[in-house]
Design brief:
The complex is a heterodimer of chains A (about 425) and B (about 325).
Chain A (H helix, E strand, L loop, with lengths): L1 H24 L1 E2 L5 H4 L4 E7 L5 H17 L3 E7 L5 H10 L6 E5 L3 H6 L3 E2 L5 H5 L6 E4 L2 E5 L2 E2 L2 E6 H6 L13 H13 L6 E2 L7 H14 L19 H15 L12 H4 L5 E5 L3 H8 L3 E4 L10 E2 L3 E6 L5 H11 L2 H11 L2 E2 L2 H6 L10 H10 E2 L7 H16 L4 H18 L6
Parallel strand pairs in A: 2-3, 2-4, 10-11, 13-16
Antiparallel strand pairs in A: 4-14, 5-14, 6-7, 8-15, 9-11, 9-12
Chain B lengths: L1 H4 L5 H7 L8 H33 L4 H7 L15 H9 L2 H32 L5 H10 L5 H12 L3 E6 L2 E6 L6 H4 L6 H12 L4 H8 L4 H12 L1 H16 L3 H6 L8 H5 L9 H21 L1 H11 L4
Antiparallel strand pairs in B: 1-2
Helix pairs in contact in B: 3-16, 5-16, 6-10, 6-13, 10-13, 13-17
The chains are: A alpha/beta (about 425), B mainly alpha (about 325).
């Protein structure tokens, strides 16, 4: 037994000494390559959310190729991640101190990442930021942290033949449907034989709810939070206007104008099962191909405080861990050329962020088949609350709206959501506000 | 009627064969019972196979048609606009071959090293006499109640600080961080509390007199493990292999956080490539079919061993 123990102890000592000698005798990686790397361009790593999206990746590749060829100080390389789990990848990388220089980010998450210290103010020329759609510029605490090549918007898709046949007025940007007109149109279409005349997209989950239905709330006069202080939702998410908005929302399902069933996307409208679809620009190309000239892109209804549509799509920013922020800034400035923005726009069917790019776009130019989206976005786009508390606001909004859709009491449900949001803000010391 | 009444057979056999007029014979009854059993089993088999049928049939249809067919029986039939286009498009969108190879490499690594390490741990806990082994086993089992999601972010931080030793320009060098490697996808999952528990339990059922006999013959502990315990524990090894294989193949959250380079991603992360604002359902189905086939093949190859091991160990996945 003693022999066994002494043999084991000897083995441990020898192994430890060997490992110690090996470690003390070896150099840290990179120490041997410093000389070789002198004079080589600095590598700037960029992460995007666009894995699997060929239309978008093609444009990044083109920009990067052109930028790398245009100078010899920096080399931009890119890594694409799947969109639906992209935020998890960023949070994990931030925790391990492994963030790249440039990252894409969805508009509403930007203030949270700025507050968490993941990203730094951009400090781009105002000539560039002023040329963009306001909803393509991510601002937090009066500083610009991110900029985007495009925006998205929601509209009502309809067939002209259906509206004409049912004697329904075709609304315009100058004169959207009023609440009464919209309700009457849905009643008429229901009577015309559509089981659920409006595909409102309630079968979807996650961020869609706040993005799509906050504009209804705002058009009724409510909001998700007090945007002057960003400290409380009380009186905004549970005030009389909000109660009116969510009562109407509940009625949409109670009256059978819409349902929470069906499939995510725009298939019900394409198949003619729904007369109207409240959906995003990303579904416009397929609808155009299926419906052709009969397709109408209509503004959302005005419920009393002006028509509204969701704004704020994917943008780009520079991380706080970036060691080559000047190079990253140089790349961003280079990338915001109209030809690239137009390419993003046409490849993905999203609204270009500059007028110059819109003019070059196949779909969004003056004679483009989807030009209505540019008008709707310019006239009615609203940002979701630019606060680090937004992830909590969004999840509480979705939870409350779904409960109300399923028949919960409107006022008490909104009170609970408001309380949850306020408690979260308070426990985070106001998120810097 | 006459022959049943005048049967010369003993009472019990006669009773078994006794046939009441107008009632079917026992053979007919047995056949009917068998038919009903087969019908019930076939219905059950159909019920379980429906998702797979839907998957493979839908992988041949355009996305729009999948949605349109979903409300009817057409969803399970290869009708309409049938083609292999989705499979072609999958290859355009995702490096499927690379992802399959990565998953295969990681999974095989986890399973093989897991079998070795966990069975050795189980051996130490069940066969060796040492102070505190009961406490150690309790602590190991206690880790089963901790959900992986709760420790994922601290683990990312931890693995990002672990050292690497390698040669660079002929000099032994070191650096820190295991992110973006195969080992970060394999090593954290080799030691598995459930596998250790299962091996420990199984090894405990093997008589200790075998160890003593081997010791008398001069065998050391490792020889006993290799020559006595392992050959007698086939069902336990098969069960652990399959129960380790499935979660390893289906890994999603961990590689998502620790692998940023596309060349190292496994198949499940690739699934998310198809979920843009408008999901490409046809391609989703084609990709799902492609990554399900290896799992099906593994299961079908080891079906007999798996079923017998489940029956022997009483473990359900």
């Amino acid at each position: 037994m003693r022999t066994h123990r002494s043999r084991t102890a000897r083995a441990v000592v020898i192994t430890g000494l060997t490992a110690g000698l090996a470690l003390s005798g070896c150099a840290r990686a990179g120490e041997t390559t410093t000389e070789a790397s002198d004079g080589a361009p600095t590598e700037i790593l960029m992460w995007t959310h666009s894995a699997g999206n060929d239309g978008e990746l093609t444009v990044y590749d083109q920009i990067i190729e052109d930028f790398n060829a245009s100078q010899d100080q920096y080399t931009v390389v890119t890594e694409a991640f799947p969109q639906s789990s992209y935020n998890d990848s960023i949070v994990a990388a931030a925790a391990s101190g492994d963030l790249p220089c440039l990252i894409s980010m969805d508009g509403p998450i930007m203030p949270n990442w700025a507050w968490a210290g993941y990203i730094q103010p951009l400090d781009l020329p105002t000539s560039l930021t002023d040329s963009l759609l306001p909803t393509a510029v991510g601002t937090y605490q009066d500083e610009i942290y991110s900029v985007g090549y495009w925006d998205a918007a929601i509209a009502i898709f309809a067939r002209q033949s259906v509206l004409d046949a049912n004697g329904i007025r075709i609304p315009t940007v100058d004169q959207p449907w009023t609440k009464d007109e919209f309700d009457a149109a849905l009643t008429t279409l229901k009577q015309a034989g559509y089981e659920t005349p409006l595909d409102i997209g309630a079968e979807d989950t996650g961020e869609w709810w706040s993005y799509a239905y906050l504009p209804f709330l705002a058009s009724f006069g409510g909001d998700e939070i007090n945007r002057e202080t960003y400290l409380s939702a009380d009186g905004y998410l549970n005030g009389p206007d909000a109660v009116a908005a969510f009562t109407w929302f509940q009625d949409v399902f109670k009256n059978g104008w819409s349902s929470a069933g069906g499939t995510i996307g725009n298939q019900e409208f394409i198949d003619g099962d729904a007369a109207l679809a409240y959906t995003g620009v990303w579904n416009a190309k397929a609808a155009l191909e299926a419906v052709g000239d009969d397709l109408l892109i209509l503004p959302p209804p005005d419920f009393g405080h002006g028509a509204k549509t969701g704004g704020g799509s994917w943008t780009f920013g520079i991380t706080s861990q970036c060691q080559a922020a000047d190079g990253a800034r140089e790349y961003l400035e280079f990338s915001f050329q109209d030809e690239y923005i137009a390419a993003f726009s046409d490849n993905q069917v999203v609204i270009p962020a500059t007028d110059g790019a819109a003019a070059m776009s196949e779909y969004f130019g003056a004679d483009g088949s989807l030009e209505a989206f540019v008008e709707i976005s310019k006239a009615f786009a609203m940002m979701r609350p630019e606060t680090p508390a937004y992830p909590v606001i969004s999840s509480q909004f979705e939870k409350a709206a779904k409960e109300i859709m399923n028949g919960a009491d409107v006022q008490s449900t909104l009170n609970v959501a408001t309380q949850e949001i306020d408690t979260n803000i308070e426990s985070n010391d106001g998120y810097g506000f | 009627m006459t022959d049943t009444l005048s049967s010369p057979l003993p009472d019990t056999a006669a009773a078994r064969r006794k046939r009441v007029p107008g009632q079917p014979s026992e053979r007919v009854l047995a056949r009917r019972r068998r038919i009903w059993t087969y019908l019930a089993m076939s219905a059950l088999a159909l019920f379980f196979i429906f998702p797979l049928v839907f998957l493979f049939v839908s992988s041949l249809k355009p996305s729009g048609q999948i949605m349109s067919d979903s409300g009817s029986g057409r969803a399970f039939l290869p009708v309409g606009d049938i083609s292999l286009d989705n499979y072609v498009d999958v290859f355009d969108r995702v490096p499927v071959g690379q992802f399959l190879l990565n998953s295969a490499f990681v999974t095989v690594g986890i399973v093989l090293f897991g079998l070795l390490v966990n069975s050795l741990a189980g051996f130490a806990l069940s066969r060796l006499e040492w102070k505190g082994r009961g406490l150690v086993l309790t602590l190991i089992i206690a880790t089963l109640i901790v959900p992986f999601e709760t420790i994922a972010v601290p683990m990312v931080y931890w693995v990002s600080k672990l050292p690497n030793l390698f040669f660079e320009n002929g000099i032994l060098v070191y650096d820190f961080g295991w992110l973006n490697t195969y080992k970060v996808q394999i090593i954290p999952f080799i030691a598995n509390a459930f596998s250790i528990f299962l091996f420990t339990q199984y090894f405990s059922t093997i008589p200790k007199s075998l160890d003593e006999a081997a010791r008398v013959d001069g065998a050391g502990w490792f020889t006993i493990y290799r020559r006595v315990i392992v050959p007698l524990s086939g069902p336990a090894f098969a069960t652990v292999a399959i129960l380790t294989f499935l979660p390893a193949w289906n890994q999603y959250l961990w590689p998502l956080m620790v692998v940023q380079r596309e060349q190292l991603r496994p198949v499940m992360v690739g699934m998310q490539y198809f979920f843009q604002l408008s999901p490409a359902w046809g391609e989703v189905m084609a990709y799902a079919a492609m990554i399900t086939i290896p799992v099906l093949l593994v299961f079908l190859s080891f079906q007999r061993a798996f079923i017998s091991s489940i029956a022997a160990s009483g473990v359900k996945g």
